[in-house]
Design a protein that fits this description.
By secondary structure, the protein is mostly helical. The protein has 24 helices and no strands. Helix 20 packs parallel to helix 22.
Length: 495
């Protein structure tokens, strides 16, 4: 793609990345001549489209961040989009519109202005399409703009119809994790002619597949976002987390990724023949089977894995410790120590309040097995109560959840997660005084607990203790590194 030399908005010289250093615009040629103006911006606002959500960027993101995110998403589509089927083509068109508006300072300013003035029409509180950000009306099974399935309904790979165009494409595991398969799309010759200053080392770096570390980071980020999403049942959240975990296992394993890459290329070319869909399903089944197949490790191999996992956990790397400890626990079912360390790794891998039902049940089973075998964790009873309380919360039994979390906090008063969980339950039932007390107990243990400060600010606002709410918001602002103000935090809580 050849970039223009001058900015289309202010005529300044464009940088080497096609971005104007003066006003942040990008060359018009980057959008293949897409020419938009005020009517198209107004139409996007009237339709309720959230362009920031469509691109997956914050509404305060700078121009360079937006351009880079657009380029990453654009790389998921072929150079010639005319070969796409109806739904992918609509997604591509919406992506183009969002990129064009948000990378033009004047169009973006107009969009922001109309978006604020029409806030009721944009309907910030409703369920939105995960692909384009459009509001979903009633019980629409699909988005009326881009055709994506309603959130909470996992989309299986499509079976091609007997005749006519394909209704949809199979699941793109790279897109699912927000990763770009640059190694499958880069044309070194074209890149060299477009950017003569690009050296061989940089080309090699840009064309490599995502590293296991990048895959893990992306997967865990999306899993956490999924587990925190409101409005989904526990079963819906677990189904989505399972899809993310399948994507992680495939893309971080070179052998599995190479097989998947062949399917990815075939599907991008519109080819569903020669058993491609069946092969993809077989690959997914293989990954699922690997997770449930009993271990065939020798005792020596299992002991070595256990030592490796324990060392990783001791070094403060609980996520990396999960896999070896899980395999060691399966191969050593009578080892209380293996079960105990596996439970520790699960509870340390993320905030326990963010763990999904599957992880909590795994931790609970490991804790119970270790306790029965005579090697319980320190404060094992409090962690058992914590897991039971969080599972009851996820099941919608707030009363039982509060009983278990209170038991956990009484047995281990320094268990900050129990106090924060109690605060969240108190807020949900309108007991703001109890929520404030529980937040103070949590903050006495960990003064840097941002979520406890946020809940404290919310409870204080509800009880009109504005000075305390502002003080809590100021602590949140101090803990964050994004320069957000206390006023903005209070406004977000109030809304």
């Amino acid at each position: 793609m050849t970039l223009e030399q001058t900015c289309p908005s202010c005529s300044a010289t464009l940088g080497s990345d096609g971005i104007c250093p003066a006003c942040g615009s990008v060359t018009r040629g980057f959008f293949r001549g897409l020419n938009l103006g005020a009517p198209q911006v107004a139409a996007a606002v009237a339709q309720g489209l959230d362009l920031y959500r469509l691109l997956g960027v914050d509404q305060h993101a700078d121009a360079i961040t937006i351009v880079r995110q657009y380029r990453r998403l654009r790389a998921l589509f072929p150079d010639d989009p005319s070969a796409l089927t109806t739904e992918p083509r609509r997604k591509f068109e919406l992506l183009q519109v969002a990129g064009r508006i948000l990378t033009d300072p004047s169009l973006r300013a107009l969009y922001n202005e109309l978006r604020v003035s029409a806030a009721s029409g944009i309907q910030q509180g409703v369920m939105r399409c995960e692909s384009c950000g459009a509001p979903l009306q009633g019980n629409e099974p699909r988005c009326r703009y881009c055709g994506s399935l309603r959130p909470g309904e996992p989309a299986p790979p499509a079976t091609p119809p007997d005749a006519g165009p394909l209704a949809a494409e199979p699941v793109d595991f790279y897109a699912l994790l927000g990763l770009s398969p640059a190694h499958l799309m880069i044309n070194p010759g074209a890149r060299r002619s477009a950017r003569p200053a690009l050296d061989a080392a940089e080309m090699l770096h840009e064309s490599r597949p995502p590293t296991p570390e990048e895959v893990d980071a992306a997967s865990y980020a999306f899993q956490q976002r999924t587990l925190l999403h409101h409005g989904w049942s526990a079963a819906e959240r677990e189904a989505r987390v399972e899809n993310l975990e399948i994507a992680r296992r495939i893309l971080r394993n070179e052998r599995l990724r190479n097989r998947y890459d062949a399917f990815w290329l075939a599907f991008r070319q519109g080819r569903f023949d020669h058993g491609h869909l069946e092969g993809l399903r077989a690959l997914i089944d293989e990954v699922r089977a690997d997770e449930t197949t009993p271990s065939t490790l020798s005792v020596e191999e299992a002991e070595a894995l256990f030592q490796q996992g324990r060392g990783l956990l001791t070094a403060g790397l609980p996520r990396e410790a999960l896999d070896p400890l899980s395999r060691a626990r399966e191969a050593l079912p009578h080892s209380a120590e293996a079960h105990a360390w596996y439970a520790r790794a699960i509870l340390a891998s993320a905030d326990p309040l963010d763990l999904g039902g599957h992880a909590l049940r795994q931790a609970l089973a490991a804790l119970e097995t270790a306790a029965r075998s005579g090697a319980p964790l320190p404060d094992s009873e409090s962690y058992l109560a914590l897991c039971r309380g969080l599972l009851a919360r996820d099941a919608g039994d707030a009363r039982q959840a509060e009983i278990e979390l209170l038991r956990a906090a009484q047995q281990n008063p320094s268990l900050v997660h129990a106090w924060r969980g109690l605060a969240a339950l108190a807020l949900a039932r309108g007991a703001n005084g109890d929520a404030i007390d529980h937040c103070h107990r949590a903050l006495a243990i960990d003064p840097r607990d941002e979520r406890a400060w946020l809940m404290l600010a919310g409870a204080c606002l509800r009880t009109r203790r504005h000075a305390e709410a502002r003080a809590a918001a100021e602590r949140v602002a101090a803990l964050r590194s994004d320069g957000v103000s206390a006023e903005k935090i209070l406004a977000e809580i109030a809304s």
